[in-house]
Amino acid sequence: MNIAILGTGQVAQTIGTALVKLGHQVTLGSRTEHNENGVAWAEANGGQTHNFATAAKEAELVFNCTAGMHSLSVVQQTGAENLAGKVLIDVANPLDFSQGFPPTLSVCNDQSLAEQIQQALPDTLVVKALNTVANPVMVEPSRVPCQHSLPICGNDDRAKEVVKELLQQLGWQNDQILDLGDITNARGTEMYLALWVRLYGALGTGDFNIQIQKAD
Amino acid sequence: MNIAILGTGQVAQTIGTALVKLGHQVTLGSRTEHNENGVAWAEANGGQTHNFATAAKEAELVFNCTAGMHSLSVVQQTGAENLAGKVLIDVANPLDFSQGFPPTLSVCNDQSLAEQIQQALPDTLVVKALNTVANPVMVEPSRVPCQHSLPICGNDDRAKEVVKELLQQLGWQNDQILDLGDITNARGTEMYLALWVRLYGALGTGDFNIQIQKAD
């Protein structure tokens, strides 16, 4: 599949590298055409890099791996026309570190970043996924023991099937993926980050996930 | 121990009944002295009921099991002098159901209900606990399999030790209890409710908990 990843940071690079290994054509998108991180990653991993608009235009599916505080501006730079009709997997969290650690969320409670992106891109099929785990876990879920859980959500069932298929390629088993329903449920998975960052603090690592245990 | 529980609803009654069975003297506190739920519970379970102020005044330790939207008003009615020097276990979540299900939070992100209660009661030792599970799980954690987790937080280490001891009486094992640090961490455990209510919706039951799984 021809996949664009908006962003050139650690999350973008980790997902990009995993997707290249799976045989996908991957382009990291950046504000500029020759972003230093993007060029270095592309050369080292056999991928490509371009500006946001061109990366998205040529792709069948797009990941948003930009910092959540900037994601709406990135989407605007990318252009709705380059994202129309495509599945966009929103991995970002609207974390605001301006007051230090732990961060607050720049949007929450009666709104979410994923909904804002869906509103800005009415012709794009936004699916929220992977935002509840750190990037090593995203692409290698087996590093965490047991049937830990990955909640996803989005308005379009066929888009969610496409995402589930891609997640399975990344190592997620079907019964680890929990569909919460429409995109408003991203409020839940993004607000969980307020607990995640504190678990990260208490455990001293981000290399964990939660497993949902039902009563017998 | 002489324990007061602010509230006469399901959470208050469930915790109250469990504490009576453990041999504690329990008084459910209510706005009025002869609250119908409180009187019925006390007669059926060998407990007592009183108004908030009297219940708290005579207690060594106090639970807040009122609806989170009303908890600050309840604390005010109870009177800081009746809660001074005591451990207060805050079980409430500031859930606002005025727009239906799923609820929003009436306070979150850069503040939490537990912090507001601690600010209103500077001489009370507030510990946030048990707010991340439904009431059947609170008093019978073994109904959920495996080492699922209970995050707690509060400013006073000795108060947290008292709470841990009481949680162990209720069936929580020491290594299930995760101390996140000071009371500001209640932002994390309260905001997790935005995910909890959606897991409740997707699973069709509140009879679950999360287990934190670290990478090997």
What can you see in these coordinates?
2 copies of one chain form a homodimer. Chain A is α/β, with parallel strands linked by helices and 216 residues long. In chain A, helix 1 links the parallel strand 1 (2-6) and strand 2. The model of chain A has no long low-confidence stretch (mean pLDDT 98). In chain A, the strands form 2 sheets. Chain A has an 8-stranded mixed β-sheet with strand order 3-2-1-4-5-8-9-10, sandwiched between helices. Chain A has a two-stranded antiparallel sheet with strand order 6-7. Chain A has 10 helices and 11 strands. Chain A has helices at 10-21, 36-45, 52-57, 71-78, 80-83, 113-120, 135-139, 157-169, 186-191, 193-203, and strands spanning 2-6, 25-30, 48-51, 61-64, 87-90, 95-96, 104-105, 125-128, 150-154, 177-179, 208-214. The interface between A and B is large, with 44 and 44 residues. Strand 11 of chain A pairs antiparallel with strand 11 of chain B.
